Amino acid sequence: MNRLMLDLGIIKLASPGIFHLLPLGIRALEKLKSLIDKEMHKINAQRLALPALTPAELWEKTELFTLTDRHKNLYILSPTHEEAITDLLASIAPLSYKNFPLRLYQITSKYRDEMKSRFGLMRGRQFLMKDLYTFDIDMENAEQTYSEIIKSYENILTKLGIGFSQVLAATGNIGGLISHEFHYTADVGEDKLLFCSNCNYKGNVEISGQDYCPQCKSTKIIVRNGIEVAHTFLLGDKYSKSLNATYLDRNGLIANLQMGCYGLGISRILGAAVEVLSLEQELRWPLVLAPYKVVIIAPKGGSKEEVLTSGLDQELYDNIDKLDGYTGNILLDDRNHLTIGKRYLEARRMGYPYIIVIGSKATETNPLYELNEILTNKQHFLDKNELLQHFRSIQ
Amino acid sequence: MNRLMLDLGIIKLASPGIFHLLPLGIRALEKLKSLIDKEMHKINAQRLALPALTPAELWEKTELFTLTDRHKNLYILSPTHEEAITDLLASIAPLSYKNFPLRLYQITSKYRDEMKSRFGLMRGRQFLMKDLYTFDIDMENAEQTYSEIIKSYENILTKLGIGFSQVLAATGNIGGLISHEFHYTADVGEDKLLFCSNCNYKGNVEISGQDYCPQCKSTKIIVRNGIEVAHTFLLGDKYSKSLNATYLDRNGLIANLQMGCYGLGISRILGAAVEVLSLEQELRWPLVLAPYKVVIIAPKGGSKEEVLTSGLDQELYDNIDKLDGYTGNILLDDRNHLTIGKRYLEARRMGYPYIIVIGSKATETNPLYELNEILTNKQHFLDKNELLQHFRSIQ
Fold first, then answer.
1. pLDDT tens digits, A29-73
2. Pick the CATH number of A294-394 from 3.30.420.10, 3.40.50.800, 3.30.70.3420, 3.40.50.150
3. Which residues in chain B have Cβ-Cβ distances shorter than 8 Å to A19?
4. Do A126 and B26 touch (CB under 8 A)?
5. Looking at chain A, which residue has its C-alpha nearest residue B26?
6. Which keywords has UniProt assigned to this entry (chains A, B) (predicted)?
7. What is the rounded average pLDDT for all residues in chain B?
8. Taking the domains of chain A in order of start, what are their residue ranges?
9. CA-to-CA separations, B78 to A63, B130, B179, in angstroms, rounded
């Protein structure tokens, strides 16, 4: 049974731009990772892990952490892995055309020596990123893959339940032929996005200016701030050519692979989602990421409710825990030296979507429980069967 | 459905002592992590993640990777987190005695600038470690916790099915009052362990010499090589005192917490288990870690078996995939341009514990499948129901 023990919280600053991820934060992150793993499985992407410590030979970029080992070899802490993965493919090249499309991704810590780290998890110096790399035999297949992955990223972001915009973006340092970003629009966002009401063009202003639409020249535009949560690149052969990642085509001839890369900011999504959804005094989680969906608050020790409802908290816990989608997602707050009121406020601050209070109506012959649905701001008094039916129906 | 696509393998050297973890390796690692999470849940341990990048102030050790950021601040890549976690507790001190025992663990990448990295995953420079830290209000409770965690670690290692020895160990750099190590005995092991046949004493020779038993002075001893897979320390107040991790006792007085720390080498266990179990030409996995439990080899394209067993591979896959413990753990090798023999050898090399071949007996009216149980070296011909019953019974 999950009992509310010491509540350490979600994140805590360790040093500038670097965070401890505390137990509730880890639970939310693991849910996000598992949601992504499921989507990646659907598109036949295989998971691997490339090391953070990377020999520095291939790199010439700012904002990198560099270090030398005891043998005076120069290393970097990788912020991204286009070179490493292309090198991996080159080391087993040439594979047959039959092995493609190939899709490989990882969910690992990345590093960037930001000039100014800020906005908590949204721009840290050590952060968790999911990066996917795709390999195809020609541009037609690579473009097809690019569309498929964008659809998959849309599925992931849709499941989080926060509105997002896909915009045209600059290819920048990573390079390639075309690039898109996914953004949450929010005042705190560091990017500026241009939306054209005339032709529906959407783009980051860094490629399009912000005076008129670069596609139809209309001035019927809206400019909003955005938090970038994903970035996709159709790379072509930029990396495969220079690093010799090749394959054997149907005629036995050697050709370069066509690549794409697709980043999804894991810790940033967590920070941004909470930033976009929360109220001043209360955290709000996307329902699928909430560290626990349900918290049960048991009566205060020594109260008449405690005596008259003895065992009901445990029974309720066990019943809800058996429901599809709730197993392991429910928490019993039986710290009964604290008042119900104090624990209720704390539960609201932490953003648990459903708070069940075992109060005075639970002492009746047919015990009624107080269900608080935080996201819709509704309160119901339900008996056990109604409560279980309610949870089943909203799943 | 899991189809065998391009088989990238398990691990690959990226640079000295640093590895790519490839898709099969990641699957085994994720299984190990999930097994550990379950055991940790049983003892009320909460998972968190402390950052690898740690300000260097507190550190004065060799074998550390150090780096400076753009502001010339010195950082290390942490090989362990006693200081960081104690600092975290100190930052919220003093908590009430009611919050203890408290058990916090993480499964994260750690770093060590080894003079000589070797033995693959067993002594890498970037490695995955699970480290648990415990906090108690007094030594009696701390000792109780220490015993409980050791039992939990025994449970984890027992589930992996490889014999292990728990020995007395030196407290070394980490310090503390008492320390134990868990070892797999193997020639390749870098530690020497002393086993006394007279009094049953077991210890690392680094604290006991190797001429006679340090406990009963008997010379009836055996010395074997061991691979250290876990290390436990009863720390006492070594860290809590210097970093001010305190609590309020029953009388409202401030006192120091008593700590323990417990490392489990995740990537090392993977490397060591495969090292201990494998044959020269064939990998062997602990059954609970095998990337996939079952592989089905479909007939070769253009063969009479392919025509006469059409659809059976898919049907078999779906049926086994529904069995408890097999869901997602089964792989269909339908690369039918390859002979059955070639795919069978490859499957053996990869160490899948159960290999099902759809061969000539599957063309009969009551199709029989060839089940190869690699760990027991047995071969059976079973019809579908017998096969499913067999898998149910060995689960």
1. 999 999 999 999 999 999 999 999 998 876 666 688 999 998 899
2. 3.40.50.800
3. 51
4. no
5. A48
6. Ligase
7. 94
8. 11-277, 294-394
9. 21, 13, 21
